[in-house]
């Protein structure tokens, strides 16, 4: 069985048939999945607001209450069951719907917008931010309803599908972030055409950019992405010849240009209008699309070549907002991508533990091209900033042995349409204890070794980590997305002299995204980068999932994780100074306030201190 749809070729930026899209939307919105998704968003919204301390609440017995003021000025309350979990002190609501009480009337709370309008003022959020967040949540409701409706109609068993199809079949999105599928900028037809859940074939649009307007970066081991050898490998001789002739037909010299792919949605909605003047002046030449079919991974903007799976993944700019941030590709991160990948790969190649024992896979970002807009009037630069960029990343299949399969790490917490965990057959085959022990050794050791042996934190959240298995048993991991997904302090680096010179974050970018930086002077920020992405999200969700579905107590889970770290420290005592610098056992650690980022301006880092389940003082207040 194969999920991906690669039959036929869509025109550049074409949408699905209008009537078909309309009927699917109508059916999905009337289905029970709409209510199920709305309740899930409500739960994650309330859970995150309580956990991040954004609103006050009262718990009496098994019932929790949030007080607010209705739009008529009268008092209201929201009621629900909740519990504080051992895992980072996370708050989880019961599966029962949130209820709204106004006077003597009480019923299910079915308006996310009304909830935020009635309680967010108490959190001090500006109305403009609240209204935009409401839009993100309502778009998440629509997009996930469409995805879940399709999922239940298809009723696929992911175990019957290829490795790459797991990226399309895992449809649940971020387990903590309430606007986990906002995708602001996509309409419902775009969602069905480009959403990863729909696995539709995507044909990138290729353009030629004059070298005076392009920033190029590439691995030291590969040719420049503008070279004929590189283009022949990416496009094939036939397509390359067609595009070269297209440049000549435009009256231009092919040697003056570089070629890069553009997401068809980005071409249709952004490049064709925002950069129209450069298209008119022939600084940008549209070349057309190719025959090769791609599908979107969970991250939406990363595309997998389904015609030739060994070809690099394409990470393309998308001018949409999803979860916490816009999905453009900032030029300085594109410039840094191959430089950082080469650095990490040099480290791994010279480290026998990473190379020979853990056999860690690093999916290198081998080349990048970004459009240079400094010629534009300063007030207009922000409109085109990062809108035309591409990063080429190594594909996973070229790194796997024949006996190995691979799944996204968040697949470990996914269930099928009947509610059965996808990890069930693997756990049944090997036993929970043995399977989990192997999983933790496989996933924890590479992350902490980079931190302790080299002083580098990797942002190993669910989309950035792939679990490699042999007959269902974890054997190693693959890591990716390094161009803006590492953090280090020179004081903490094992070999600071080997640290490459990196392009600095521009002031404009820093103003709009305070979380976008690679280097810091704060050692705790380096440690917390690992805690936040890997322990809090990846392992945190797994700890809760295994207790709820398999009866593995969360305390036992975190005791096992702590044991893996302690065994590592016993084996590598030479890193004891960094054990101290990057202590993972502190009673409190900092994690990002993802919902606060949606309600308040990005003028500061939104972090809060939470209970650390790895602490030796394991008492949860």
Outline the secondary-structure elements:
Layout: H1 18-29, H2 32-51, E1 58-60, E2 63-69, E3 75-80, E4 82-84, E5 91-93, E6 99-102, E7 105-108, H3 112-119, H4 127-154, H5 163-169, H6 188-194, E8 205-210, E9 214-218, H7 228-235, H8 237-249, E10 257-262, H9 264-274, H10 276-280, E11 284-289, E12 294-296, E13 302-305, E14 313-316, E15 318-322, E16 325-327, H11 331-349, H12 352-357, E17 361-362, E18 365-371, H13 378-384, E19 389-393, E20 405-408, H14 424-430, H15 432-454, E21 456-458, E22 465-470, E23 473-479, E24 486-488, H16 507-512, H17 523-550, H18 554-571, H19 576-581, E25 588-592, H20 594-599, E26 607-611
Parallel strand pairs: 17-23
Antiparallel strand pairs: 1-2, 2-3, 3-6, 4-5, 6-7, 8-10, 8-11, 9-18, 12-13, 13-14, 14-19, 15-16, 18-19, 20-22, 21-24, 22-23, 25-26
Helix pairs in contact: 1-4, 2-4, 3-4, 7-8, 14-15, 15-17, 15-18
GO biological process, one term: siderophore biosynthetic process
Domain Aerobactin siderophore biosynthesis IucA/IucC N-terminal: 165-414
Protein name: Siderophore biosynthesis protein
Short descriptors:
alpha+beta, 621 residues, single chain, 26 strands, five-stranded antiparallel sheet, LucA/IucC-like, globular, acid-amino acid ligase activity
């Amino acid at each position: 069985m194969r999920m991906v749809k690669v039959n036929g070729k869509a025109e550049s930026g074409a949408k699905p048939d209008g009537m078909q899209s309309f009927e699917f939307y109508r059916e999905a919105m009337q289905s029970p999945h709409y209510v199920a998704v709305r309740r899930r968003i409500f739960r994650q919204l309330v859970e995150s607001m309580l956990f991040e301390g954004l609103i006050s609440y009262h718990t009496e017995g098994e019932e929790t209450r949030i007080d607010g003021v209705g739009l008529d000025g009268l008092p209201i309350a929201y009621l629900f069951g909740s519990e504080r979990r051992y895992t980072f002190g996370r708050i989880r609501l019961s599966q029962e719907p949130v209820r709204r009480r106004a006077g003597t009337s009480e019923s299910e709370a079915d308006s996310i917008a009304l909830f935020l309008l009635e309680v967010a003022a108490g959190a001090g959020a500006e109305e403009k931010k609240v209204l935009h967040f409401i839009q993100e949540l309502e778009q998440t409701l629509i997009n996930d309803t469409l995805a879940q409706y399709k999922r239940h109609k298809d009723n696929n068993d992911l175990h019957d599908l290829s490795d790459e199809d797991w990226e399309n079949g895992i449809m649940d999105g971020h387990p903590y972030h309430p606007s986990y599928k906002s995708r602001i900028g996509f309409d419902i037809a775009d969602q069905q055409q480009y959403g990863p859940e729909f696995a539709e074939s995507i044909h990138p649009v290729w353009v030629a950019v004059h070298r005076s307007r392009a920033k190029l970066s590439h691995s030291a081991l590969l040719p420049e992405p503008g070279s004929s050898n590189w283009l022949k490998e990416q496009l094939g001789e036939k397509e390359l010849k067609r595009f070269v002739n297209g440049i000549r037909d435009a009256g231009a010299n092919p040697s003056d240009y570089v070629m890069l792919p553009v997401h068809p949605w980005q071409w249709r909605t952004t490049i064709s209008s925002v950069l129209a003047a450069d298209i008119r002046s022939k600084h940008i030449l549209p070349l057309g699309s190719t025959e090769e079919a791609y599908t979107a991974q969970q991250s939406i903007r990363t595309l997998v070549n389904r015609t030739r799976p060994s070809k690099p993944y394409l990470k393309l700019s998308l001018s949409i907002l999803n979860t916490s941030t816009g999905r453009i590709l900032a030029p300085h991160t594109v410039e840094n991508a191959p430089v950082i990948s080469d650095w990490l790969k040099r480290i791994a190649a010279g480290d026998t533990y990473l190379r020979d024992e853990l056999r860690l896979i690093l999916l290198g970002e081998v080349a990048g091209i970004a459009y240079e807009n400094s010629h534009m009037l300063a007030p207009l630069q922000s409109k085109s900033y990062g809108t035309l960029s591409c990063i080429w990343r190594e594909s996973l299949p070229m790194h796997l042995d024949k006996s190995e399969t691979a799944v996204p790490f968040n697949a470990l917490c996914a269930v099928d349409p009947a509610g059965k965990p996808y990890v069930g057959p693997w756990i049944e085959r090997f036993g929970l204890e043995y399977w989990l022990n192997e999983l933790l050794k496989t996933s924890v050791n590479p992350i902490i070794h980079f931190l302790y042996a080299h002083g580098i934190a990797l942002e190993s959240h669910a989309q950035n980590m792939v679990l490699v298995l042999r007959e269902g048993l974890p054997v190693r991991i693959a890591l990716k997305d390094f161009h803006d997904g590492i953090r280090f302090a020179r004081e903490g680096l094992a070999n600071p002299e080997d640290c490459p010179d990196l392009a600095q974050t521009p002031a404009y970018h820093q103003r709009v995204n305070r979380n976008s930086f690679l280097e810091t002077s704060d050692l705790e920020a380096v440690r917390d980068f690992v805690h936040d992405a890997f322990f809090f999200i990846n392992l945190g969700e797994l700890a809760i999932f295994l207790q709820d579905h398999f009866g593995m107590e969360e305390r036992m889970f975190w005791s096992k994780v702590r044991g893996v770290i302690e065994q590592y420290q016993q084996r590598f005592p030479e890193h004891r100074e960094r054990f101290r610098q990057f202590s993972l056992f502190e009673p409190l650690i900092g994690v990002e306030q993802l919902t606060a980022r949606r309600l308040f301006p990005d003028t500061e880092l939104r972090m809060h201190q939470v209970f650390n389940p790895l602490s030796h003082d394991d008492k949860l207040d």
